[in-house]
Amino acid sequence: MRWFTVLKRILFGALALLIGLAGLGAGYEAVASGGDATRYPAPGQLIDVGGYRMHIHCMGTGTPTVVLNSGAGGFSAEWGLVQPELGKTTRVCAFDRAGLGWSEPGPAPRSPAHIADELHTLLTNAGIAGPIVLVAHSAGGKHARLYAQRHPENVAGLVLVDARSEYVEDHQTPEQAAAERAEFASYQGQVATLSRFGVIRLIWAWAWPKALPVTAKLTPEMRQLIGVVQARQQHQVTSLNENETASADNAALRGATLGATPLVVLEAGRTMQQIPNWRESQDYQAGLSTNSRLIVAEGSDHSIHWDRPALVIDAVRAVIEAARTGHALMQ
Questions:
Q1: Is 118 in contact with 238 (CB distance < 8 Å)?
Q2: Strand pairing of 292-297 and 263-268?
Q3: How far is CA 162 from CA 64, 171, 301, in A?
């Protein structure tokens, strides 16, 4: 039975090592997170929007002002490859929805319509006059379209970056919708668990491109910042709340057009291959304006603003030119 005794010692030793490492990781995370406010200060302003503050970061000068809105679980720092370039020719502002990034938590539910209303209050209180060009990624597309629907006089144009629309949900089975929500919740849960033991802070900057090649163009500092901020508990809670209510305003969006507002729809080739009805959804969104272009980013991942940032920059500049001159978008 000697082999059994040896095996038992090895197993107990491995368990003790794992417990020790977990304890060290948790302690490291507790100490390191205490200095996050100093290491990762908000680059922009915190603006009161009615009892809580939202973060908005602007650079550059010129009109119209470009407003950048991230997708599910995203925040302003994700536009780091796009915003500085756009800021060379006009004013461009990236903001954090309430409860995400550097913004304070806002009231629930975190529905698209509520988010659109918060954005209007944020821009008003920040003194950002319209008209604006809204650029929205993924789930942020619904927020942008609702904003344009509610404040058409304040919107000079839109760029939808592989944006989700109600068309996708309208063509999903209940089982597909439930599986998609569960997958997102599982991912958020894994990030939260890893963050508690310091794993995100230790390896995110160098390991992320290996797990998600689309992040390879981000600097290590940018990847580290995004990983640490996204792993915060409030960020996780808000992301899940937004995901649960993402379809709440589909009825208001369904069939609502954008008139002749300049609109560029960017579609990621890989998303088109992976998600049923995604291509049809992008065609549908391009058809919402009589002055639109649909551009397929062949081979690109869902995050086109990371994978093909120049394509996003060119699309925004095309919309700005159309807004400034009153001419149709060049085909």
A1: no
A2: parallel
A3: 23, 17, 9
SS3 187: helix
- Domains identified in the chain and CATH numbers: 45-176+248-325 (3.40.50.1820)
* CA-based nearest residue to 96, from 130, 52, 133: 52
CB 198 within 8 Å of CB 26: yes
Question: Distance (Å, rounded) from C-alpha 72 to C-alpha 70?
Answer: 7
Half-sphere exposure of 109 (CA within 13 A, CB side): 11
**Cα–Cα distance between 243 and 186 in angstroms, integer?**
12
Pairing of strands 132-137, 65-69: parallel
Show the tokens assigned to 164.
């989700």
Phi, psi angle pair for 99, to nearest 5°: 90, -5
pLDDT in tens, the chain (331 residues): 444 343 334 433 433 333 343 444 444 444 445 557 688 899 999 999 999 999 999 999 999 999 999 999 999 999 999 999 999 999 999 999 999 999 999 998 999 999 999 999 999 999 999 899 999 999 999 999 999 999 999 999 999 999 999 999 999 887 877 787 788 778 777 777 776 766 777 777 788 888 889 999 999 999 999 988 988 888 888 998 999 999 999 999 998 999 999 999 999 988 877 888 999 999 999 999 999 999 999 989 999 999 999 999 999 999 999 999 988 886 5
Burial class (CB in 10 A: 0-12, 13-18, 19+), 277: middle
pTM confidence score: 0.88
The residue with tokens 């397929």 is 296
Question: Distance (Å, rounded) from C-alpha 139 to C-alpha 250?
Answer: 12
> What residues contact residue 147 under an 8 Å CB cut-off, 6+ apart?
116, 119, 120, 134, 155
Q: Which residue has 């960017």 as its token pair?
A: 266
Residue 162 CB coordination number (10 Å):
30
